[in-house]
Structures are given as C-alpha cells and as structure tokens.
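ARCHIVE CARD
CATEGORY: sequence design from structure
SOURCE FIELD: tokenized fold
FIELD CONTENT:
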C-alpha cells in the first residue's frame, strides 16, 4: 500500500528532516509513527500525500511512484488519501454538513452524491444530530469528528492523522482513538503520527519510532511501547 524506498528529505539549510527511510505499510494496517517534536513525523506524512517531495529516494502508493507526480495529478492521488490535522482546519461559517459537503464539491462530486454520502459519514462518526450546527457550536472532540468525516467522505484507501488528539482532553482522545480503530476495521489503512505514549498503548498496533529523521525502531508486537 505504502512503500518508502531509501527516502531522504533535505531542506534548504542542508538539514535532514528524514534520512534513508525504508519501510512498508500493508493494506488495511494501522501504524503509529512516534517520536518527539521535530523528529520528522510530519514530514513523513507530507511525503505520503505529496505535499512534499523527497530529496532522494522514492515513495510508492498502491504500487505507483508518487515521488515525481505532476501537479495536475495530485487531486486524483488525494482522493485516495484522507488527511486529519491537529487543528481541524474547518470552515466556521459553514455547518457540519456544509464542511463535509465542501470537500466533495471541490472535487466535482454531484449534488446527488453529496446528499447521499454526507449523512452516511456523519452517522459513522456519531454526528447525525449535529448536521445543521455551525462548527463554532461544537466541542473540540466534535470538531475533530467533523474533520474525520471530511477525510472519510471520498472513501479513501488511506487515512493520515497528524497528531489528531493534540488539542483534546483524555476522554475525547479516547473517543477519537476508538473511531480511528473502527474505521481501520472497515479495511482503511491508518497512518497515525503522535508523540503521546498513552495513545500508542491504547491502540496496541505496529509502532515505528523516528528519532532525528531516521527510523530507530519498528515494533509489530502488541505490548507496551516506550517512546
């Protein structure tokens, strides 16, 4: 599903964000990318949905080399990848329904599809009763659920979550972890970046540790993880 082949990312000041990264994520896998701030987690995620390009090496998604992808092909790639951010990135002047629908509108989906698909994903994330609410009326946990619904609405093969619980309390954090686990059980590949030890221990899935831009550990057992 995802394959990094000797990937490095070097920024203009000649500093390595990532160095010689090699790893594979299988279809339907749930993988946590862990490490402290500045370790390279976000850069790795940006390479997956082609917001950044590697300085060297290749990134493959579903067998296709996206390292040299042309800008006019990016929308097609990103329909297969849903992205969830820490800061939600919602539109405050739109309702919950409109926020999710907007993601479909910009990709050219029909009104018929929007009316059918948006209620379905809002039901999955537990927000059917908040359809007409504005995002300013929601709690932090509810806002993140809208963000997840927006990421889900294209039925992506992969969901990337970059510190999705960073602004949430413990109860809402657990709710979001459970929701991501539920989505993974539907067959969606999940790549989660976090520095939160408790989240990783709750999920009990594969953990890849990044330190200083390199992979220092790849754990596939279901025990406790020291990060």
């Amino acid at each position: 599903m995802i394959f990094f082949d000797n990937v490095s990312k070097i920024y203009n000041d000649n500093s390595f964000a990532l160095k010689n990264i090699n790893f594979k994520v299988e279809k339907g896998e749930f993988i946590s990318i862990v490490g402290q701030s500045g370790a390279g987690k976000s850069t790795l995620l940006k390479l997956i949905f082609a917001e950044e390009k590697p300085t060297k090496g290749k990134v493959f998604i579903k067998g296709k080399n996206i390292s040299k992808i042309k800008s006019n092909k990016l929308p097609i790639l990103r329909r297969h990848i849903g992205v969830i951010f820490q800061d939600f990135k919602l539109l405050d002047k739109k309702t919950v329904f409109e926020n999710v629908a907007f993601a479909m509108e910009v990709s050219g989906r029909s009104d018929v599809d929007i009316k059918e698909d948006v209620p379905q994903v809002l039901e999955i994330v537990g927000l059917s009763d908040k359809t007409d609410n504005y995002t300013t009326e929601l709690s932090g946990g509810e806002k993140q659920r809208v963000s997840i619904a927006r990421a889900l609405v294209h039925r992506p093969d992969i969901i990337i979550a970059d510190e999705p619980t960073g602004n949430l309390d413990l109860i809402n954090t657990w709710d979001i972890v459970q929701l991501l686990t539920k989505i993974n059980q539907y067959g969606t590949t999940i790549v989660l970046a976090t520095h939160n030890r408790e989240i990783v221990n709750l999920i009990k899935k594969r953990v890849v540790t990044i330190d200083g831009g390199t992979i220092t550990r790849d754990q596939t057992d279901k025990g406790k993880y020291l990060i």
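CARD ANNOTATION: The helical segments are 41-48, 74-78, 96-105, 111-124, 140-152, 170-185, 197-203. The chain has seven helices and ten strands.
SHELF: design records, drawer C
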